[in-house]
Amino acid sequence: MGERDGAGAGDWRLLERIVVTVGTAVERYAVVSAVAAALMAGFAACGPSGLPPFRAASQDAGRDVSIAPGSGGGAVAGTTVLGSRTGGSVGPGGAIAGTGGGVGDSGGAPAGRGGGMGTGGLGTGNADTGGASTGGASTGGASTAGASTGGASTGGSSTGGSSTGGSSTGGASCPAPQMLCGTICKDTQSDAANCGRCGGVCGANQDCINGACQCVAPAQMCGGTCVDTSTDLHNCGACGHDCRFGTCTSTQCNPVLLATATSVNSLASDGSSVYALDTAGNVAGKGVLYGCPLAQCGIGGTMSVVRAGLDAPTDLLAVPSVGSVFVSQIVSGAVLNLSPTGTLKATITFPLSFLTYGLATDGTNLFVSTGSSSDFTGIQKTPLGGNTPSHLFAALPSRILYDSASNAIFARDQSLIFKCPLSATACATFYSFAGYQMNGFAVAGGKLFFALLNTSSQANVNGGLFSCPTSAATCTPTTLVPGSAVFKPFAVDADSSYVYTVMAEGAFRCAQAGCGAAPTMLFPCSPSGELANDATAIYATNPNPVAATWGVLRMAKQP
Questions:
Q1: What angle do CA 416, 511, 467 make, to 5 degrees?
Q2: Can you tell me the distance from the alpha carbon of 375 to that of 525, in angstroms, rounded to the nearest whole number?
Q3: Which residues contact 106 (CB under 8 A, 6 or more apart)?
Q4: In angstroms, rounded to a whole number, what is the distance separating the alpha carbons of residues 551 and 261?
Q5: How does DSSP classify residue 61?
Q6: First-to-last CA distance in the chain?
Q7: What is the CATH number of domain 312-432?
Q8: 477: which of 256, 277, 433, 466 fits an S-S bond (Cβ 3.0–4.6 Å)?
Q9: Could you give the percent of the chain with pLDDT greater than 90?
Q10: Domain spans, the chain
């Protein structure tokens, strides 16, 4: 290049470098200014305290350009400092640097010493001190408690995330143990509509206790549902105890009247139907057999006539294994083998025109107590479904029972109980109850149960409810319930766990091992006379002296 206006070539070259340098710096300053303005606009939501100082610099010839925030921390002040590093405008290896700077400390955005984004990328520790700086996404950021009181308070997206006790941005927070459900704080430890969580609704008869739905007394959990066992028909007194019929009151199933009759002297159930024998139902000297399927009986259904015109019937026996109901008759001396619907299957007759009384079975044979017009003659047997009677024992019983535990027949007359082992040829006296009236006896679980009434004492001294093991040769009674002026038992029946009895005050239950002087009342009616039971219910006769009729009651067994 030639000389110009007296200046040397070196001077022109120096001037040219200065112009280029300044031009380049100005160009870079313009670019950095635009970038800084965009970044500052993006950080405007970080709060009123302002932005960290951004420094834009040209590394050419060591001349720096600084961009500092205004006094309010908002817009760029636009201060330009050329050739100065005061305030950390130019880092040793970058374009935008400085302690706590915008894009790196040692090494900035354009590649200086240290390369790309510099140590720490967005400052030492990224978004920590020197990253987005104090006042960036740190103090005054998104808050320790999520976005708690005041919206953006201490802590960024820091410890706790959505904080203990609240969760709305700038909204209300809830004190522990409450939880924000919609816009309302709810105590999820006790709120039945938000139990354990928002929207966790407890069911009927439930309350929220310690964050869990629990049954409220007297309700209890039965099959995943809280029910009031004091009144629930299908869970009466205990889970699964189904009254099936009637109602449940104070944890007890109430009895249902199945039928009325003139005079009922025998009840039986075969597990499918229940039967009642009315000794004088339609015509003098004639009786009626009533029956009712268990699926209907007591649920809007009543007992219907199975067979009428019976000759002074005395006992009945239902045997489901052969599908028969046997009825003994005094006048004709025959036993009728009937179907459950009353169809005559066979008539079993006995020699010498014996009168027939009690009935029992071992599952193979039918046992019948028989007698003449002047006395009881003995015990006969015939195969179930057959008509080939043969003589077994010469006892004189009116009622008989079969006990599988001892394989013996137990029979009673006016003052004695006999034990007649089927392996023997004769009966032996098992127990004498002379001076007492025996109102009923039953066998179950290897025990014989019987009720005695002291006919000579109003206080029923020495009467009561008793048991004896059937394996014994003779009976030494165990007192289950002592007799008294109040406890005067009539009929007796038993199952594998309990013995049942009735008296003027109602129907009672006692454990086989005994119940002291306090048997459990099942229902406070006035049944007397006869009892029967099956797997789900007990049956009793109930006299109505005003109407001169007897009722047949059915009640679900208590747990």
A1: 15
A2: 37
A3: 91, 92, 93, 94, 97, 113, 114, 118, 119
A4: 6
A5: G
A6: 121
A7: 2.130.10.10
A8: 466
A9: 26
A10: 11-139, 178-216, 256-301+537-559, 312-432, 435-528
CB atoms within 10 A of CB 311: 17
Phi, psi (degrees; rounded to nearest 5) at 24 = -65, -45
Hunting for tokens 């960024």 — which residue is that? 156
Q: How confident is the model at residue 525, as a pLDDT?
A: 64
H or E element, residue 36: helix 9-42
3-state secondary structure of 362: coil
Distance CA 219, CA 236 (A): 11
Residue type, 108: G
Average pLDDT, the chain: 71
> What phi, psi does 228 have (nearest 5°)?
-90, 100
Q: Kindly state the greatest CA–CA separation across the chain.
A: 173
DSSP per residue over 119-186, as a string? TTSSSTTSSSTTTT-TTTTSTTSS-TTSS-TTSS-SSSS-TTSS-TTB--TTS-B--TTEEEETTEEE
Q: What one-letter code names the amino acid at 192? A: A
Cα–Cα distance for residue pair 373/165, rounded to 1 Å: 95
Ramachandran angles phi, psi of 201, nearest 5°: -90, 125
What does the alpha-carbon distance between residue 297 and residue 137 come to, in Å, rounded to a whole number? 79
Q: 35 with 55: CB under 8 angstroms?
A: no
10: phi > 0 → left, psi -120 to 50 → alpha, else beta; which?
alpha
* Coil, helix or strand at residue 243: coil
Q: What is the DSSP letter of 336?
A: E
Q: Determine the pLDDT at residue 314.
A: 87
Q: Which two tokens stand for residue 379?
A: 């015990």
Amino acid, res. 155: G
Measured in whole angstroms, the distance separating CA 74 from the mean position of its chain's CA atoms is 65
State residue 14 phi and psi, 5-degree precision. Answer: -65, -45
Task: Assess contact for 311 and 355: CB atoms under 8 A.
Answer: no
* CA atoms within 13 Å, Cβ hemisphere of 537: 29
Which DSSP letter does residue 44 get? G
Question: 118 CB contacts (<8 Å, ≥6 apart)?
Answer: 91, 93, 94, 97, 103, 104, 105, 106, 107, 108
Task: Categorise residue 87: left if φ over 0, alpha if ψ from -120 to 50, beta otherwise.
Answer: left
Tens digits of residue pLDDT in 354-367? 788 899 999 999 99
Residue found under tokens 């030494």: 476
Q: What is the pLDDT of residue 374?
A: 56
Strand order across the 390-393 sheet: 355-361, 365-371, 376-383, 390-393
